[in-house]
Amino acid sequence: MPELSASEAFKLNNLKFQDPYITADGSTRAAVSLKHLETLWFNTGTLCNLACENCYIESSPTNDRLEYLSLNDVKFKLDEIRALKLKTREIGFTGGEPFMNPEIISMLGISLDRGFDVLLLTNAMRPMQKHQQVLKGLIAAYERLFFRVSLDHYSVELHERERGKNSWDPTIRGLKWLSAVGAKLSIAGRMCWGEDEQKTREGFGRLFSELGIAIDPMNPSSLVLFPEMEISRDVPEITDACWNILGKSPEQVMCSNSRMVVKRKGEAASTVACTLLPYDDAYVLGETLASSTGPVQLNHPYCAQFCVLGGASCSA
Ligand code: SF4
After folding, report:
1. Binding-site residues, ligand 1, Cβ < 6 A
2. 49-96 tens-digit pLDDT
3. Please, how many CA atoms are within 13 Å of residue 298, restricted to the half-sphere of its CB?
4. Which CATH superfamily is domain 35-235+254-299 in?
5. Ligand 1 center–CA 178 separation, angstroms
């Protein structure tokens, strides 16, 4: 792909991603149907104790564009899963930093009590560590509780370049604590420093050995490496024909098997197509799960960068 200046790329991307059904060259845009709601994500709110350089959702200590979800919001959706007899396996919690939400522990509790696998994304820093006592009890009581800790790189330098100064030590402390109390752990890292995947996995492997943490760095579900995402980069649009050309199927992208519940500021809780696009009106599918089952048009640069060409998924 040719290197473009930011303004050239912006212009080009502005010609693309316009019509939800037709791409800039007149082809039929790819669409993805919800096959089965395997995972329901809750975005607990965009407030975070960190302000990372490239946070795709722009979380920070001041961004409350996605307000805190309440326990009732979560309960309402879990009730809906039950009423609709959906075969949802997994409930995911993401933010922001989920442990900033004052009701997160009750949200975990109700989801676990109802028999779901629960995956919680955290930076494992002080907001999580404040809950150590109660978390220890949940970890001991529920085999289905999984933690995914964000550790952008295995080196202090690159992790802190992304997450800010002094962000390494507290995360490592939290990670070691989770491991020591027997939490089921995975790591979310990034692939944005020009290093190849094998090298990145080997680097994380050395770190896990030094820390004495039993995570297999070569297993893509244990060490999830996210591709670089840059909204201003020129990316191809995904057409219907791309599935065959790329040898991929719509069932491999997240919006075929997951949805996310968000509470956009001043609005009621609603369901959006995926974890990556909470602010884009075109991806808000309605207030109920029942209203959110329609096909999703792949009309955003992230559809190409992250899902179809990047091959990434947020889930377990
Ligand atoms: S970013 Fe991925 S999951 Fe989200 S709508 Fe696009 S293809 Fe679907």
Report:
1. 32, 253-255, 273-274, 276-277, 296, 298, 300, 302-303, 306-307
2. 888 887 878 888 998 999 999 999 999 999 999 999 999 999 999 999
3. 31
4. Aldolase class I (3.20.20.70)
5. 31
